[in-house]
């Protein structure tokens, strides 16, 4: 038996807090009866409806995908472009990405059908570290790297401090490879941070997400997360990103 709001969140309908609001508003039915109290628990055989629509209660699944460049981090695209769920043709469950990577960014992306888990990892309060490697036009100076480390003023406000390392520099081509570690997830954040210091990002790859990496995978390949990895991610998020 599980709490009703958790079942609704896991189905991807809403976050757990929003699910609680739906229950209090009388928009949820269990076995045909409206439920307006929190704390109700339901089992696998109970029928749950939200706004008159039965929810699909699937076993939760968790995947790690090596997203290639030129793929949309979505379940569909109105322009007909390739989306990340196209790599899961044989999967009979409805999954969606946790967060997103830009169209031109490659690397590690998590997908699930567990809405509660996805909302937990995406909540800005939980500082999950993400490691990116960027090939940039221009060779950033120590002062520019320090700017990235201290935070960059973007349109929506200052970014949090980052960890930055210059991995290599090609002075003939005027390019550099830089590793940057952040725990935020703003739209095109890494690209915008580099643009702010005058370095255009030519290539960008997310190499790590918390303790997860792309070892053993090629672009377009994926693997299922182990129960232990899922448990660790939950614990890491709930501890505020501290291992």
Automatic annotation (TrEMBL):
Stated name of the protein: Pseudouridine synthase
Annotated organism of origin: Geobacillus jurassicus
Family: Belongs to the pseudouridine synthase RsuA family.
CDD domains attached to this UniProt entry: PseudoU_synth_RsuA_like (cd02870), S4 (cd00165)
Gene Ontology MF, one: 23S rRNA pseudouridine(2605) synthase activity
Keyword field: Isomerase, RNA-binding
Ranges annotated as spanning the membrane: none
Span of domain RNA-binding S4: 2-65
Gene this chain is encoded by: rluB
EC code(s) of this entry: 5.4.99.-
